[in-house]
Every structure is written in C-alpha cells, then in structure tokens.
Amino acid sequence: MKSFYEIISTIEPDRIKAKLREVTTKQVRALLDSINSGGIPQADDITILASPAAGELLEPMAQAAKNITLRRFGKTIQMYAPLYISNYCSNSCRYCGFNIHNKINRRTSGREEILAEARLLNNQHISQLLLVSGECPSEVSIDLLENTASELKGLFPSLSIEIYPLDVPDYSRLYKAGIDGLAIYQETYDQKIYSMVHPAGPKRDYGYRLGAPERGAAAGFRQIGLGSLLGLNDWRVESHYLMHHAAYLMKHHWKSQISVSFPRLRPAAGGYSPEFPVSDQELVQMICAFRLMLPDAGLVLSTREPAKLRDHLIGLGITRMSAGSKTAPGGYLDKLDSNLDKQGRTAEGQFNVCDDRPVEAVAQSIRAKGYDTVWKDWDNGFER
Ligand code: SF4
After folding, report:
1. Which domain holds residue 12?
2. Is residue 384 part of a domain?
3. 93 in contact with ligand 1, CB cutoff 6 A
4. Residue from 94, 99, 206 whose mutation best tests the ligand 1 pocket (most atoms within 8 A of CB)
C-alpha cells in the first residue's frame, strides 16, 4: 500500500490551480444536482466545489450542505474545549505565538493545575477535552500525558491530543491510557511553503508530520482530526490536498472517524501576517464544499472565528465547536492561582481567541437556533 506521502508527491500544485480555473458554473450545477439526488462525489470533485465558479453559487451550495447536515447529524452541535499544558516549543513556525524565538512568558502546568483546569471545564459540562502542547518532549513527555490521561478519563468520556507527532508505539501508549482522539494538522500540504514557514526544528520534517494521522490510526485512535492552517497557502489548492488526505485515511483506516477543521490564522506573538488571507465568504464555501464531499465527517470550528460567523455557520455543515477556550497553559485558572511562569508573569497564549464568550453563552446561541448541544456522544464501552 502506498503511503499518502507517496501519493501527494505526485500532485502538482500548478495542475490543481489550472483545473480550478477551468471549472464552469455549469459543472458546479451538475455536481450539485447529482449530490442533491444522492450521488456520491469523487475526491477530485473538490476542485469543482472549491473553485471560483462555485463561489458564484454559494447559496445553492449552502442549501445542499444544510440539507445533508440535517439528514446525517440532526440538529446537534458537539461541544469541546482545549486545555493547553505547555507553551514551550522547540520549533520556529513563523505563524505561531509559541515559536521558540518569540520572547513570551512560558510555563508548563503541573499535575494539580491540569486537574484543576479540567475540573473547572467539567463543571461547565465540557466532556470532550483536547489536550494541547507545543513540541517540547522534555516539558510534556509521553509519561506525563499517559499519567494525565489516566487521571482525566473518568471525567471526560472523550479525550484527544493535539501535540507533536509520534511513532506508533507512543501513540499506542496514549491510546491505552484513555486518549481516543488525535488532531494533527499538516498546516500546509504545499512542500515549498511548508519549508518556508517551518525554517528550523523537528517540524521541518514534512513527511514525518504527514504520516502522523496514519500512525495514529494504526495505533487505534477512534477520531483523527485533519486540517490546513488557512492563510498559509491558496485555500482552494489546500482543499484539494486535504480532501485527498481525508479520502485516503477513510479508505485505508476506516475504523477511525475522520474530522476536518478550518483554522484561519489569527494574530499572535511574532506578528506573522497571512500570505493568502481567507475571507468569510471563502471560509463558508470551503466548509460547504467539505460537507458536500464528506457527508459523514465531523467538521470542526474553533473560537478562532468571531461569534457572529460561528453562529451563522451552525447548520451549514459544522458539527463540532469549541467554547470558552483559553490558549495559554493555566489559562482557565484565576491569575491568583497559578497560570504564571517561573518569574511570576502570566503565561501567554498561542493566538488571540476571537469568540471569547463563556461556554454557556455559546450553548445558549446554539439552542436559540433550535439546535441541541451535545456534551458527550459516546461511552468507552470496552476495556483497552
Ligand atoms: S505551531 Fe506548534 S510546533 Fe509550531 S511553534 Fe507553534 S506550538 Fe510549536
């Protein structure tokens, strides 16, 4: 079986760009008609739905996406929250506030602080928790994650990680400790841009990162989250790669449920400004395109987006939302408690959250639109 790395290396970005330019509104209409009558699109059809021509047909696309979401997921939105463990990082990603060269206040939360934050979130009904850290195994080791997961799994039926990429044996340890989900975004699938925005550090290894979802699936993770960091490359081209990555994993690792996130770059320490900004309208098109292409996939929207847009997107394809998020380790604790670094300064976040409403306010907005918030969608029914 070919790895996805071998497959993607044969897809030329210029070829995708040429195909995107050639798409006509007639082709978009024909594909929408086919999807509306139960047709199943092929992975390459993403080029049609992510094209500028499809941008002219956003209304019918949104209507079709709404219908599919309603049929497959009902009127529900799953809720989760991230918990940042550490903002130390050995990488120098140009777009990230945790870049090793940024002079920010750094800290790693200890066991007691992690548990205190987790309980605080749990008291707000959060049952799906995403543990996040920069790439610094000396600060956030597999042992620490394993122990943390063992302590948290009683409180959280679903525990996921968004950390540095690992080999299968380490992923297996975390899976056995109670972590069932892995989120690892390629950031950009374009190898040239990837090298430019990751000038140093272990993350420079494009192939190792690209293989992480496959290794995570091989280790048994029930949920695998993919995504491109929107703003690093032309979103239409990224959509093509991302779609093929999702389709590859669905075909070869069908036991794992694939979800797709749509993180747009946000202001952060370092002041990186996106080369390829994505407008609200383009973001909506991308989300609708993925819903039409992947009717059963979870589509995730974080607090990087403004409250108004997030509310607007309920029903159009998004099935999972974070709420009340803090992006600094210890960020949920009162400053008087302990979100301070070794010098007693407040630790800094990865990026500025845009939707800063508390969890309950987000839940109320969802309910006001006639949707139910789902805090917990499954129980781990078997021992690992
Ligand atoms: S994106 Fe991740 S790996 Fe890169 S600097 Fe930020 S935390 Fe580190």
Report:
1. 4-374
2. no
3. yes
4. 99
380 in any annotated domain = no
Residues with pLDDT less than 70, the chain: 334-345, 377-384
Cα of 91 to ligand 1 centre, how many Å?
A: 6
What's the rounded Cα separation, in Å, for the pair 211 and 285?
A: 28
Residue minimizing CA distance to atom 1 of ligand 1: 96
Report phi then psi at 230, rounded to 5: -75, 125
Q: Domain containing 340 — which CATH number?
A: 3.20.20.70
270 C-alpha vs ligand 1 centroid, how far in Å?
12
Task: Answer yes or no: is 368 within a domain.
Answer: yes
Q: Report pLDDT for 381.
A: 47
* Per-residue burial over 349-379, b = 16 or more CB atoms within 10 Å of its CB, e = otherwise: bbbebbbebebeebbebbeeeebebbbeeee
CA 56 / ligand 1 centre spacing (Å): 36
Please indicate whether residue 135, judged by its CB atom, sits closer than 6 Å to ligand 1. yes
CA-based torsion, 336, 337, 343, 348: positive or negative: negative
Whether ligand 1 lies within 6 angstroms of the CB of 96 is answered as yes
Q: Would you state the pLDDT for residue 61?
A: 98
| Residue 351: predicted pLDDT | 85
Q: In the chain, how many domains are there?
A: 1
pLDDT at 378: 57
Tokens read off for 121: 């979130």
Is 194 a pocket residue for ligand 1 (Cβ < 6 Å)? no
Does 157 fall in a domain? yes
**pLDDT on residue 384:** 47
- Read off the amino acid at residue 242: L
Pocket test for ligand 1, best of 84, 98, 188 (most atoms within 8 A of CB): 98
